[in-house]
Amino acid sequence: MDTTRFGLTFWGLFRNHETEKEYIQKIVPDVLAHNSTTILVAGLGYWAVSAADFAKLGLSAGFYQSVLARTIFLALCLFSYFLIKRIGTYKATVTLASVITLCSSVLIITVIYILNPDKTIDTIDQITVPVVTLLIYTFMQIPLLLLFVNGLMVTVLYILLIILFMKDTADTTINIVAILVVINFMGVYFNRFLNSSRRREYANQATIEYLNDDLRQEIEERKTTQQNLENALEQITDSIKYAQKIQFALLPSETILQQNFKESTILFQPRNIVSGDFYWVHKIEEKIIVAVADCTGHGIPGAFMSVLGISLLNDITRSSACDNDKPVSASTILDKLRELVINSLNKGGEDTDRRDGMDISLIIIDKQNKTIRFSGAYNPLWLIREQDGKPILSEYIGDRMPIGIHTKKASPFTEKVIPYENNDIVYLFTDGYKDQFGGTEGKKILSKQFREILFSVYNKPLELQRTVLVERFDAWKGNYGQVDDVLVMALKL
């Protein structure tokens, strides 16, 4: 933004020609009124000085000649005054002002010649020309060039008068010419000095308006941009909310858990609208398969991966149910799931991100044999059993490899067979709960504190346990943002 374009030079002129034109167009009414009034006052003032002519010449021919010259000039001024009022353009007032200024110079020279029949210029007459010239220069609002032209014409006319008609010495002529030249520059300077304040005021006002226009334009652009962003955000949010409905529809109903377990509860709290964590339940004859998974990322990328995981698990269990010769195995399901995930992400042969995939804990509950078959990819299984009125927590660690491409050579997942007793509680969870930052020092909850929370509520109904887990999580999080999707599932056997 170039605000210097409104700056003024030493002469009170704008540095930028376009700004000078803007200024002139802005103050045309004021210029017209000012110059027309100046012209009228000049005409009346010159005519009033006729009284001094009478005191010097009396009722002589010279007096009548001077009065006639002054009257002609007054008539010209009156004509110009009404003409400016009628035409009302800046160009007209400049032209008429220039004509009046030059005519005033001719009038002064003529009257001086008439008033000095002895061809010698009196001292009073030598003062009149510079003073009148200075007054014209000071009060007329015309372009700088015309002021210089007028001053040059006055000087030339006065020199001709002295040379042709007067008898003054060369020293007097030189002094008068020098005074006229000085008056030229002084008149121009005073003219610009008197007008510089209003020009500077306009320059400041124009600068402010220029800045305000830019600011208003920038505000409008920002409003438009903000409105576009808000519209885009609204559309994206609506789309994501619709995707949330689809994702939640793919998750199993809690009814299947309530029908097959004494108690059950799920703490499912996505970081964003949609989640990269998911849970999955499937029943094959008397066996119930339950999985809790944490897909790569969260939000939309994680949600896409979770939909893929749910779809693949459905396909695996559907094909396993058709194969009656092979028993359902937790490790076999994970092996097959890993194979399908890798193939799905590399259909085009591209080298996808090695991190794409999921961590999962999967159990198969056999109620007839009262066993739990567990297999995990990083995610563990916690089982709490009450002995002698105290909770005992058994932790079963999953294999340290993901459902996806692994940096090491892939090996089959292992399976643990865990006998259970009535009222044992199984906890399957992702790392979102224990990895949450918060507390007084901004640290993670970690497994130790998570375990202590479960010990404090293990003998409570599972739905109440869920409430306590939510309250403790929110209290710990405080003003910190949620760092990951949270999923905790509790099943009472």
In words, what does this structure look like?
This protein is an alpha+beta fold and 493 residues long. The protein has two domains: 3-217, no CATH class; 251-492, Phosphatase 2c, domain 1, CATH 3.60.40.10. It is built from twelve helices and 13 strands. It has helices at 17-48, 50-57, 61-87, 90-115, 123-139, 144-165, 170-250, 254-260, 299-322, 330-345, 446-457, 462-477, and strands spanning 263-269, 277-284, 287-295, 357-366, 371-377, 381-387, 390-396, 403-404, 416-419, 425-429, 437-438, 443-444, 486-492. Strands 2, 3, 4, 5, 8 and 9 form a six-stranded antiparallel sheet that branches. A five-stranded antiparallel sheet has the order 1-13-10-6-7, sandwiched between helices. Strands 11-12 form a two-stranded antiparallel ribbon. The longest helix has 81 residues, at 170-250. The protein is rod-shaped and about 150 Å long. It starts with 16 loop residues before the first helix and ends with a strand. The model has no long low-confidence stretch (mean pLDDT 81).
CATH superfamily of the largest domain: PPM-type phosphatase domain
Integer average pLDDT: 81
Shape: rod-shaped
* Order of H and E elements: HHHHHHHHEEEHHEEEEEEEEEHHE
Helix content: 55-70%
* Number of strand segments: 13
Largest sheet, if any?
A: 6 strands, antiparallel
Provide a count of the helices.
12
SSE-based structural type: alpha+beta
Précis, in short:
With 493 residues, this protein is of the alpha+beta class. The chain is 58% helix and 16% strand. It has 2 domains: 3-217, no CATH class; 251-492, Phosphatase 2c, domain 1, CATH 3.60.40.
